[in-house]
Design brief:
There is one protein chain. With 189 residues, the chain is α+β, with helices and mostly antiparallel strands. It has a domain of 131 residues: Phosphorylase Kinase, domain 1, CATH 3.30.200.100. The protein is 29% helix and 26% strand.
Length: 189
Protein backbone atom coordinates (compact mmCIF):
# COMPACT_ATOMS: atom_id res chain seq x y z
CA UNK A 1 0.00 0.00 0.00
CA UNK A 2 1.31 3.43 -0.96
CA UNK A 3 1.84 5.77 1.91
CA UNK A 4 1.06 9.45 1.82
CA UNK A 5 4.09 11.70 1.31
CA UNK A 6 5.20 13.52 4.39
CA UNK A 7 4.24 17.20 4.24
CA UNK A 8 7.89 18.26 4.08
CA UNK A 9 8.32 16.36 0.80
CA UNK A 10 5.41 18.12 -0.97
CA UNK A 11 6.64 20.78 -3.41
CA UNK A 12 5.46 23.32 -6.01
CA UNK A 13 5.01 20.65 -8.65
CA UNK A 14 2.45 18.88 -6.46
CA UNK A 15 0.63 22.18 -6.00
CA UNK A 16 0.57 22.84 -9.77
CA UNK A 17 -0.93 19.39 -10.42
CA UNK A 18 -3.67 20.29 -7.95
CA UNK A 19 -4.38 23.75 -9.39
CA UNK A 20 -4.36 22.88 -13.13
CA UNK A 21 -7.58 20.81 -13.01
CA UNK A 22 -9.31 23.56 -11.01
CA UNK A 23 -8.33 26.26 -13.53
CA UNK A 24 -9.47 24.08 -16.44
CA UNK A 25 -12.78 23.44 -14.72
CA UNK A 26 -13.29 27.21 -14.18
CA UNK A 27 -12.53 27.94 -17.85
CA UNK A 28 -14.98 25.26 -19.01
CA UNK A 29 -17.76 26.61 -16.76
CA UNK A 30 -17.11 30.21 -17.91
CA UNK A 31 -17.07 29.12 -21.56
CA UNK A 32 -20.33 27.19 -21.25
CA UNK A 33 -21.97 30.12 -19.46
CA UNK A 34 -20.69 32.54 -22.16
CA UNK A 35 -19.81 35.07 -19.50
CA UNK A 36 -16.27 35.87 -20.47
CA UNK A 37 -14.40 36.89 -23.56
CA UNK A 38 -10.81 37.34 -24.61
CA UNK A 39 -9.92 40.87 -25.67
CA UNK A 40 -6.16 41.39 -26.03
CA UNK A 41 -6.61 45.08 -26.98
CA UNK A 42 -8.55 45.91 -23.80
CA UNK A 43 -12.21 46.66 -23.31
CA UNK A 44 -14.28 48.12 -26.12
CA UNK A 45 -17.44 50.20 -25.97
CA UNK A 46 -20.65 48.37 -26.61
CA UNK A 47 -23.60 49.74 -28.53
CA UNK A 48 -25.41 52.74 -27.06
CA UNK A 49 -28.82 51.69 -25.70
CA UNK A 50 -31.76 53.01 -27.71
CA UNK A 51 -34.18 55.32 -25.90
CA UNK A 52 -37.23 57.12 -27.30
CA UNK A 53 -36.71 60.55 -25.77
CA UNK A 54 -39.63 62.08 -27.69
CA UNK A 55 -42.18 59.61 -26.32
CA UNK A 56 -40.74 59.81 -22.81
CA UNK A 57 -40.81 63.60 -22.55
CA UNK A 58 -44.24 63.80 -24.20
CA UNK A 59 -45.60 61.33 -21.66
CA UNK A 60 -43.97 63.24 -18.79
CA UNK A 61 -45.46 66.50 -20.09
CA UNK A 62 -48.90 64.91 -19.78
CA UNK A 63 -48.52 63.57 -16.24
CA UNK A 64 -46.26 66.09 -14.50
CA UNK A 65 -47.57 69.36 -13.17
CA UNK A 66 -45.06 71.61 -14.92
CA UNK A 67 -44.05 72.46 -18.52
CA UNK A 68 -41.55 69.98 -20.00
CA UNK A 69 -39.28 70.85 -22.93
CA UNK A 70 -37.80 68.54 -25.56
CA UNK A 71 -34.66 70.22 -26.90
CA UNK A 72 -33.64 69.75 -30.53
CA UNK A 73 -30.15 68.34 -29.98
CA UNK A 74 -27.80 67.55 -32.89
CA UNK A 75 -28.75 64.44 -34.87
CA UNK A 76 -25.52 62.68 -33.94
CA UNK A 77 -26.33 62.87 -30.22
CA UNK A 78 -27.80 59.51 -29.16
CA UNK A 79 -30.50 59.55 -26.46
CA UNK A 80 -29.70 56.59 -24.22
CA UNK A 81 -31.64 56.88 -20.97
CA UNK A 82 -34.51 58.44 -19.11
CA UNK A 83 -36.11 58.39 -15.70
CA UNK A 84 -38.59 60.13 -13.48
CA UNK A 85 -38.26 60.67 -9.74
CA UNK A 86 -39.11 62.94 -6.85
CA UNK A 87 -36.63 65.28 -5.21
CA UNK A 88 -37.90 65.29 -1.64
CA UNK A 89 -37.88 67.77 1.16
CA UNK A 90 -39.10 71.35 1.45
CA UNK A 91 -39.12 72.82 -2.04
CA UNK A 92 -38.99 69.38 -3.66
CA UNK A 93 -41.00 68.02 -6.55
CA UNK A 94 -41.13 65.75 -9.58
CA UNK A 95 -38.05 65.43 -11.79
CA UNK A 96 -37.85 64.15 -15.36
CA UNK A 97 -34.41 63.22 -16.66
CA UNK A 98 -33.04 62.17 -20.06
CA UNK A 99 -29.47 61.38 -21.07
CA UNK A 100 -27.53 61.74 -24.31
CA UNK A 101 -24.26 60.34 -25.63
CA UNK A 102 -22.34 62.79 -27.84
CA UNK A 103 -20.29 61.70 -30.88
CA UNK A 104 -17.13 61.89 -28.71
CA UNK A 105 -18.67 59.37 -26.30
CA UNK A 106 -19.45 61.89 -23.56
CA UNK A 107 -22.62 61.71 -21.48
CA UNK A 108 -24.90 64.70 -20.88
CA UNK A 109 -27.90 64.59 -18.55
CA UNK A 110 -30.85 66.95 -18.75
CA UNK A 111 -33.17 67.17 -15.73
CA UNK A 112 -36.31 69.31 -15.51
CA UNK A 113 -38.19 69.84 -12.26
CA UNK A 114 -40.56 71.89 -10.21
CA UNK A 115 -38.17 71.47 -7.26
CA UNK A 116 -36.13 74.45 -6.10
CA UNK A 117 -32.51 74.77 -7.12
CA UNK A 118 -31.42 74.20 -3.51
CA UNK A 119 -33.17 70.81 -3.50
CA UNK A 120 -32.53 69.75 -7.11
CA UNK A 121 -28.74 70.20 -7.18
CA UNK A 122 -27.99 67.93 -4.17
CA UNK A 123 -30.61 65.44 -5.40
CA UNK A 124 -28.79 65.09 -8.74
CA UNK A 125 -25.21 65.55 -7.47
CA UNK A 126 -25.57 63.46 -4.34
CA UNK A 127 -24.01 66.17 -2.19
CA UNK A 128 -24.42 69.79 -1.24
CA UNK A 129 -22.57 72.19 -3.52
CA UNK A 130 -22.10 75.93 -3.74
CA UNK A 131 -22.44 78.00 -6.92
CA UNK A 132 -19.08 78.83 -8.49
CA UNK A 133 -20.08 81.10 -11.36
CA UNK A 134 -22.58 82.06 -14.02
CA UNK A 135 -22.68 81.04 -17.68
CA UNK A 136 -24.76 83.38 -19.84
CA UNK A 137 -26.29 81.22 -22.59
CA UNK A 138 -28.85 82.48 -25.11
CA UNK A 139 -29.86 85.35 -22.85
CA UNK A 140 -30.44 83.09 -19.83
CA UNK A 141 -28.35 83.02 -16.67
CA UNK A 142 -27.13 79.47 -15.97
CA UNK A 143 -25.69 79.05 -12.46
CA UNK A 144 -22.58 76.88 -12.49
CA UNK A 145 -21.66 74.37 -9.81
CA UNK A 146 -18.12 73.23 -10.54
CA UNK A 147 -16.20 71.19 -8.02
CA UNK A 148 -12.77 69.59 -8.39
CA UNK A 149 -13.14 65.90 -9.19
CA UNK A 150 -16.88 66.12 -9.94
CA UNK A 151 -18.93 66.67 -13.07
CA UNK A 152 -20.05 70.28 -13.52
CA UNK A 153 -23.69 71.24 -13.09
CA UNK A 154 -25.51 74.12 -14.79
CA UNK A 155 -28.95 75.21 -13.55
CA UNK A 156 -31.42 77.83 -14.75
CA UNK A 157 -35.05 78.73 -14.28
CA UNK A 158 -37.23 78.72 -17.42
CA UNK A 159 -40.82 79.83 -16.82
CA UNK A 160 -40.88 78.48 -13.24
CA UNK A 161 -39.17 75.17 -14.11
CA UNK A 162 -35.66 74.35 -12.95
CA UNK A 163 -33.55 72.98 -15.78
CA UNK A 164 -30.31 71.22 -14.88
CA UNK A 165 -27.53 70.01 -17.17
CA UNK A 166 -24.69 67.82 -15.95
CA UNK A 167 -22.36 65.14 -17.27
CA UNK A 168 -18.92 64.58 -18.70
CA UNK A 169 -19.44 66.85 -21.70
CA UNK A 170 -17.28 69.78 -22.71
CA UNK A 171 -18.24 73.41 -22.10
CA UNK A 172 -19.23 73.64 -25.78
CA UNK A 173 -21.54 70.61 -25.43
CA UNK A 174 -23.07 72.06 -22.24
CA UNK A 175 -23.65 75.34 -24.09
CA UNK A 176 -25.18 73.51 -27.06
CA UNK A 177 -27.63 71.61 -24.85
CA UNK A 178 -28.46 74.71 -22.78
CA UNK A 179 -29.14 76.70 -25.96
CA UNK A 180 -31.38 73.92 -27.34
CA UNK A 181 -33.38 73.75 -24.09
CA UNK A 182 -33.83 77.52 -24.07
CA UNK A 183 -35.04 77.49 -27.71
CA UNK A 184 -37.49 74.60 -27.16
CA UNK A 185 -41.14 75.36 -26.53
CA UNK A 186 -42.90 73.47 -23.71
CA UNK A 187 -44.60 70.30 -24.94
CA UNK A 188 -48.37 70.11 -25.02
CA UNK A 189 -49.81 67.05 -23.26
Amino acid sequence: MVEKKPRILQNNRDMMWSIIPLVLLCLIVAGVASRCSFSPGGPTSGPVPQFDVDASLKYDAGVLGFPVRNPAVPEDWQPNSGSRGVAGGDGGGDVTTVGYITPKGRYLQLSQSEATEEVLVPWVAGDLRSPTGVAPVAGERWVEYAEEGSEPIWVTDLDGVRVLVTGSGTTEEFTELATAVDAAEPLTP
